[in-house]
Predict the 3D structure of the following.
Amino acid sequence: MSFDPRHDSRRLFELLLLVASVLFAGLAIAAAQGLSRPWKAFQAQFVALGLGKSEVPPGIVEVSTCDGDVDRCTTCHLGAARLDLNVAAIGHPFRSHRPALGSHTPERMGCTACHGGVGRALDVDRAHALAGTAGVDPLLKTPFVLASCGRCHVPGDRPGTETLVQGALLYLQLGCAICHSLTAGGIGAWDDGPELRALGRRSKVELETSLFEPAADFPESTMPSYEPTFEGHPEELTVLSTYVQALTLTRLPACATAAARDLGALSVACSRCHLDGGPAAGVPHRCSYILERKAELRCRGCHGAATGKNAAQDCPVVAAHRPACVACHWGSETLRR
Amino acid sequence: MSFVADVVRAARALPQNLRHDLHPGVSADDSPGSRLRRSFLYHLFPLRVTERALAPATTFGLGLVSVALFILLTVTGLLLMFYYVPTPRDAYGSMLDIDNVVTFGRLCRRLHRFGADLMVAVVLLHLVRVVAQAAYRRRELNWLIGLGLASLLVGLAFTGYLLPWDQRSYWAVRVVTELLGLLPVVGRAMQLVLVGGAEVGAATLSRFYALHVALLPLGMLGCLVWHLWRIRKDGGLAAVEVDPPTVAAWPHLVLRVSLVLLGTTALVLFVALVQDAPLAPLANPLRPENPEKAPWYFLAVQEMVSYSALTGGVVIPVLTALGFLALPFLDRADLDVGYWLGARGERRTVLVAVVASGVVLGLGTVAYLTPELGAVLEALPPWAHDVLNPAGLMLCWTALVVVGTGLRTDAVRPALRAGIGALFVGLCVFTLLGMLRGPDWGLASPWEAFRRVF
């Protein structure tokens, strides 16, 4: 082996300098990336509009959400909580929220509980869960944001959840539940479609594609195209997609125990806590479906005769209607049994 | 005004005075560079090293790359510790904060994540290098320390995998702790100690965190120092020559070491600049991932367990571990130590065995996955499933390779090398196959699998 130490070490030293300069260049790029604060540009823009109550950019704004997390959306969406900026001249991200908030204000609820996205993120792509952030809840906009009502509410228990009730009825009328069963772990009576709740979130476009071209994602799918069904009824398509979107959302821990919340579980079925005559046993039934069909279901006939707490479950009439129940109570394991 | 003049004079003389006060007896013209050389580098390195040890192809600097990564991981890990909160409730949120709010947090997390993955891969290659050069001979203790280091590293990588508390990590840890429970006698107890309860939860996270930031790194630091010290004590790199040509460690070794340290850092930095560290949605114990996958370094075991829990989860891991522990005690020859694959005749035999293993195990696995053979195997009695699968094939084939090579070359070392080569090829096949697994453990297209990883 020929080895000339002097020549060799000079060459090596040059190589070392090269690697060191590459490393420093990389560190400079990393520093530029790490120190960029895209939200500051938005705040400067907002201050320049002269709409702010003070002339000082507020810095990072944090709001506690109803599930104990933190949203920083209002760092850029500076007008969201104000009522006076809902004018056409003011575009995103500064415009006021639509006034349909009711008690669901950003201060009380945060933003992500209804809209999805990543509340802790501060750059546009990540916060809105755009491309490249796969697996995170995509942003829900009107009218799909109504799907989020189902994260806390059983459809029909409050005004404002009518879309989900309509969606549940469409789901039953169109026979979706025959294959995409909402009971028994998704095993359908006729054919096994995937359980929609297990699919995870899908965007509006993905949901419509899988309705119109079921074989696009699953080549072996035997599902027919539902394009003719919705021809001329775009509003029904929206309603059904919103309902299916709602099925795939995680439940908020409003009805979860503290222990389950400590596990980090956001989707705990209500029945986990309200099992077999738990606190919910005394709550009057608000389900619009049951109330409408009271006579048909002959509740009084069963409830009068039975003594056990699970009377409703032993009732053959309720058992026959169980698919209908689950269309709304999709988080409830009591009904699935 | 003389007071002001005094202050100015004192300030001017400060550097010189400081140097004199801090290092009495050292002359002022003694440059910092030469002091560094004398007091630090000559304690770390020998005065002279063999020319062969400096040639890149001798070791490819794999051990040193691992040391560089260990330093990088320690520094970034310490920084991450300031922001990470090890409770199920806050862990995921703190990950998002590190990524989105903490200055340079995202960079730190990427460096830590990619550095860890690279370190596992590099240490594996380092192990292969030592086997292929029989560098464990007369360094039995250091071989065992090295195996300990490798296990500690896998432990560190795995405990760190849970910490983001996202869907992917949660279900991966469920898979691996269940694989651990398959081991006979000690498996269940080890699983309970690690998980700290019936299910992966708050107790698991605090245990993994304690292991990840305290116990395992300290153990690793101790073993690493021991490992490096043993290299010096054993006379540097394994070699057979008497009186080989040497050069001075300064500057030749020091330059190369600096090059490897800087180069490794630059490489990880480059990856961290272009690629985001994965973070799946928040862990949800009620909604399993499909497929649930172990981290890539455990994927071969998971794949084998999907064939047979007994063969893939117990027999092969236990035999492999025992084989590696016993390696320097089975191979007693001192010939050709420190050279890639030894003498020419043996080298060809080993290479042929490794290539043949690739063909046999690859084709065998593909055949196993065809529906025709699947239907035939389905009809066999249950016990046959433990043997008649790719993992069983790998076990039998490895045994065959060891015996065949041993008979052909009439030596222990080529037989062991060919066997380890066959095992390594098989594990690579299973890891690749594991990466291709999609929903319900069915096969997905490579593109789908790639999309899931990145």
